[in-house]
Each structure stands twice: as structure tokens, then as C-alpha cells.
Amino acid sequence: RSDPTRVVAVAGLRGLNDEDLKQAKFNAEELARLDALRVSATQARTFAGQARLAAVSVPDLPKPQAQQSSTWESN
Question: What is the pTM of this model?
Fold first, then answer.
């Protein structure tokens, strides 16, 4: 599951801040517009095949190692 506390951090990459998210309201019209753009898995595979795209398995990244809190500790 994704971490719900990271919503602001991820949204910040999209130009939204904490206040923007607090003031956000559900917009059924925009949701309907997004739904109209949805394609099925079959349509997506067909498109990818026509573009000569191929699925590639990518291994997971290794878990990050704990970092030292300062460079002083490494001396």
C-alpha cells in the first residue's frame, strides 16, 4: 500500500501544496472527462503492439541502506 502521508510530497511535484489539497473538492465533471479517456487492457496492448513496444521485466531496486546522519561519523 502507498503511504498516505506522502500525498503532499507527491502532489508538490505536480505543483500542488498543502493548502491546495485542503481546499480540493470532488468534481464529478472532471472525473467523467477522465473516465472518457480510459482504455481497456486489450486496447492498451493493441496500441503497444502497433507501436512495436514490448514488455520488459525490471528487477526491484535494493532496499536503501541506513545513511549516517553526518559526515563527521565517517571520519
Answer: 0.44
